Amino acid sequence: MAMNCNPKDEVDGGPPCAPGGAAKTRRPDNTAFKQQRLPAWQPILTAGTVLPTFFIVGLIFIPIGIGIFVTSNNIREIEIDYTGTEPSSPCNKCLSSNVTPCVCTINFTLEKAFEGNVFMYYGLSNFYQNHRRYVKSRDDSQLNGDPRALVNPSKECEPYRRNEDLPIAPCGAIANSMFNDTLELFLITNDSDPTPKPILLQRKGIAWWTDKHVKFRNPPGEGTLEERFKGTTKPVNWPKPVYMLDSEDDNNGFINEDLIVWMRTAALPTFRKLYRLIERTDDLHPTLPAGQYYLNITYNYPVHSFDGRKRMILSTISWMGGKNPFLGIAYITVGSISFLLGVVLLVINHKYRNSSNTADTMAF
């Protein structure tokens, strides 16, 4: 049935009348949703609803924050800076380019034993792995073992795409700047015995499982790893090709875990990356007993040119990961502020409610 045309609607901005008296309309359907008649609920903020909310948040957040903070403080951690910029540092001699390779030794003491598995990290400061061009300077297809990308890397790898007219494997600035210091840890059992005890450092199990088994793969083939990388060359700053990173095939080439860890770029200029794992051998003895240790460093990685710093970190972990007091402090701060606001609002509400009751009594 045709709609009647009302000229008044046309004057008021409605749809123009069509020939024959019929008019087209853009009016939405007469439903609760399209006419915005859905039922709604809006809380009324009163002292009876707001004050308990503040107190409940405070009473929940403060104990959680204390628990997280105490857990973080129970994690054992020690940092050894071995940049060598200080003249008294044993690694100061390694800043000279004439000394290669350079080995330096730093003695330190563990005041308390480290229980459970211990993680050894290397840390860098003032190193911007989050730079846009640096982050993009890689070829994930090549790292995944694609034969075509192996001989023809992505242009994103420039200027570390080819060298001496051969494709670089792995290409890009990230791989070219891979951390290559060697860290060794020794325990001095007693002063009378000059022979130190080497600490076993596990070089496997430091990379993410998905990276090791999904994202990084060696080129396919039946020959040796060297044959599969034939026709490529090493990155410019590397002392040896990628197929010589490790003596074991399951940790060599693109699936070398040191390479995999380095290729996962950090978001901040000061960061740490997992270097080795020290596993607990039995429940009767601590993994690292308290005592004298020394760190043997083969100093290869230059940081002095960009005012960077290098450090070695030994740390245990808990259910919440490594040592990080920030989360606990954040929970305690939010809970304390919420509880304090609840107290302030309670006092204000009590004061003004009494004033209102007094005024009503006087008026009566």
Automatic annotation (TrEMBL):
Q: Which parts pass through the membrane?
A: 44-70, 326-348
Q: Which UniProt keywords apply?
A: Cell membrane, Cytoplasmic vesicle, Disulfide bond, Glycoprotein, Golgi apparatus, Lipid transport, Membrane, Transmembrane, Transmembrane helix, Transport
Per the UniProt entry, what are the Gene Ontology biological process annotations, in alphabetical order? phospholipid translocation
Bias (Low complexity) ranges = 13-23
Q: What GO cellular component entries does it have? A: apical plasma membrane; endoplasmic reticulum; Golgi apparatus; transport vesicle membrane
Q: Where in the cell is it found?
A: Apical cell membrane; Cytoplasmic vesicle, Secretory vesicle membrane; Golgi apparatus; Membrane
Q: Which Pfam families match?
A: CDC50
Write down the membrane topology: Multi-pass membrane protein
Q: Where is this region: Disordered?
A: 1-28
What family does this belong to?
Belongs to the CDC50/LEM3 family.
UniProt-recorded name of the protein: Cell cycle control protein
Q: Provide the species name.
A: Cavia porcellus
Question: Lineage of the source organism?
Answer: Eukaryota, Metazoa, Chordata, Craniata, Vertebrata
Gene this chain is encoded by? LOC100721198
